[in-house]
Amino acid sequence: MKKYENGGEEALKDKRGRKKEEAKLSPEGKMKLEMKKLERENERLRAENLFLKKLEEIERRRK
Which of 19, 33, 37, 63 has the most CB atoms lying inside 10 A of its own CB? Predict the structure, then answer.
């Protein structure tokens, strides 16, 4: 909680290990990196969508 409150979503990212700079990656490597980013974003949006649906359902039940 403290990490997120102090640094936001960026603070929760795992920064261990060596990572190649994007400029040094081959076109195939750049594509794989972009796909991983998009998959993570997609998963985050799915979770957010589920959360909002449940919240909407709870609000509907209260009325």
Answer: 33
Per 3-state DSSP, the chain is made up of helix, strand and coil in percentages (nearest 5) of 80, 0, 20
What are the domain boundaries of the chain? 26-63
Which is more confident, 61 or 22? 61
- Rounded Cα distance between 45 and 34, Å, is 16
Tell me the pTM.
0.58
Q: What is the b/e burial string over 27-46, where b = at least 16 CB atoms within 10 angstroms of the residue's CB?
A: eeeeeeeeeeeeeeeeeeee
What letter represents residue 18's amino acid?
R
What's the DSSP call for residue 37?
H
Q: For the chain, what is the largest distance between any 2 Cα atoms, rounded to a whole number of angstroms?
A: 57
